[in-house]
Design brief:
471 residues; 9 helices; rod-shaped; binds adenosine-5'-diphosphate
Length: 471
């Protein structure tokens, strides 16, 4: 049993609370039982005395046949006789009743504390308490009022200890049963806590295995269920999947980036080696070699600068301040500049809804549109067309789309084109390095938007950037 485990803590707290409740219950039961028992004792005392009241009668003379035929008890009193019926109960269930004169002289019946109650005043229909040798007794008196019985009293006496046997039986049963029940509850609680906490242990074990082995493919496997712990396990599994995805993306990026960087460096080195090793190199050949080196260096420097921009946008987005700007004018300016390119005799037309304003970063939005239009030129067809639209949509969003009638994208490439360094057909990419669309996606997300693409190989492609208007 681990000292600090949740299971131990839960069981300890639960046991402490249970023991407290049981002890309190024990004392409450005991005191309530005692109260009820005492009341029952007093009631039986009153009933016994009241019943005996009718069993005492007075006769002026004693007829011989009356006396002969019954077994009642007769005592001479005054000028006649007191008849005590044989139903008179002088001792029943430890309740004693005695017939006394007002000065305390006992005429009939029993009183175990007669001597001690000699001086106790008679009080009609009142329960009195007397303590004799440390024991409490209840005393109940009834004055007899029938003719001839004036001056006579019935005195009932019962000891408080009379109910003690029942009480100690209740107490004994509680003292034996309650600890057994508490023990069963504690063992049950320990087992339930263990069962309930098993998923947490499994979660912790899986997390530890992942930490030790760096194996993000591991998942927490619980039995069927849908309680909070299963939900927690699902959340953890989802988190592991995401971590795994981003870890893999990271690894992929490093490998792609190294590959992309290595190609121009290898070309430069090869060109240098070749030129240096060759004897009698002409000025023209030197020039050609330097031309190759310059081209590759440019490619390298563009690649590095694109990667840096990417890293900045991803890791330090706060470097790019947002301002309120007129997107319609920005799009029109970029289009009118880029329409001049006319690469492959492609025509660019632009239709924008006026005065669409957003909070955004001018530099990044320019980059976004420039990348999309450059791609449309690069993958467009000779004498083709590029259409740029900017319009607002219901629900405070606007759509910026760039459409071309170029080569289009194969459906199997569509899910990958926004990945960094992905090029469906590198031979057509020319100066591209596969970072353009990934950057577009990053910029759209930076502005709280998203990018979608529709494309048909041979017919052309449409890229749509959907952004919620924030102005
Ligand atoms: P690249 O520098 O290769 O153009 P991008 O990230 O801009 O990289 O694009 C990724 C790939 O998506 C390209 O290599 C190309 O295959 C495809 N692509 C992008 N835009 C278009 C387009 N307008 N028409 C057809 N294919 C496109």
């Amino acid at each position: 049993m681990k000292k600090n485990s949740i299971r131990t803590k839960i069981t300890l707290w639960f046991s402490a609370a249970l023991i407290l409740v049981v002890v309190l219950t024990y004392f409450v039961i005991l005191s309530v039982s005692k109260g009820i028992l005492q009341k029952t004792i007093r009631d039986s005392l009153i009933t016994a005395v009241e019943n005996n009241v009718d069993e005492v009668e007075y006769y002026t003379s004693l007829y011989s046949d009356t006396a002969a035929n019954d077994i009642d008890y007769y005592v001479r009193y005054g000028n006649g006789y007191i008849e005590i019926d044989d139903d008179f109960l002088d001792a029943v269930n430890d309740v004693y009743t005695s017939l006394c004169q007002a000065d305390g002289t006992l005429i009939y019946g029993e009183n175990p504390i007669a001597l001690d109650t000699m001086d106790l005043d008679f009080q009609d229909s009142v329960v009195q308490r007397v303590r004799v040798d440390g024991t409490l007794y209840y005393v109940f008196d009834r004055q007899l009022t029938l003719d001839g019985l004036e001056g006579l009293w019935l005195r009932g006496v019962v000891s408080e200890e009379q109910g003690e046997t029942e009480l100690s039986a209740i107490s004994r049963t509680s003292l034996i049963l309650q600890p057994i029940l508490v023990l069963i509850a504690i063992i049950g609680g320990w087992l339930i806590a263990g069962r309930v906490l098993t998923p947490i242990r499994q979660i912790a074990e899986t997390a530890a295995q992942i930490r030790q082995g760096d194996d993000l493919k591991k998942r927490i496997e619980l039995n069927d269920g849908s309680d909070e712990l299963h939900q927690l396990a699902d959340q953890f599994n989802e988190m592991f999947s995401r971590l795994d995805d981003s870890f893999q993306a990271q690894q992929q990026f490093v490998s792609d980036a190294s590959h992309e960087l290595r190609t121009p460096v290898t070309v430069i080195r090869a060109q240098c080696d070749l030129t240096l090793e060759e004897q009698d190199v002409s000025l023209e050949e030197y020039r050609e070699a330097l031309e190759v080196i310059r081209r590759q260096s440019k490619k390298l420097s563009r690649l590095i600068s694109d990667m840096l921009d990417f890293a900045r946008l991803e890791l330090q987005p706060e470097r790019y301040q947002k301002e309120e700007l007129n997107l319609s004018s920005l799009v029109e300016d970029i289009c009118s500049d880029m329409a001049l390119i006319r690469e492959n005799n492609i025509t660019l037309t632009c239709e924008t809804e006026e005065n669409i304003r957003i909070r955004g970063n001018r530099e990044l939005l320019t980059r976004l549109l420039t990348n999309l239009i450059s791609n449309a030129y690069r993958y467009g067809r000779t004498n083709g067309h590029i259409w740029v639209y900017l319009r607002s949509e219901p629900g405070h969003s606007f759509v910026l789309s760039v459409q071309d009638d170029g080569i289009g994208i194969a459906s199997e490439d569509l899910p990958n084109i926004f990945r960094r360094f992905y090029q469906a057909d590198p031979s057509r990419s020319g100066k591209g390095n596969g970072l353009g669309l990934a950057m577009v996606k990053e910029i759209a997300e930076f502005h709280g938007g998203e990018i979608r693409v529709q494309s048909e190989p041979g017919s052309g492609s449409t890229f749509m950037v959907i952004i919620q208007s924030t102005c």
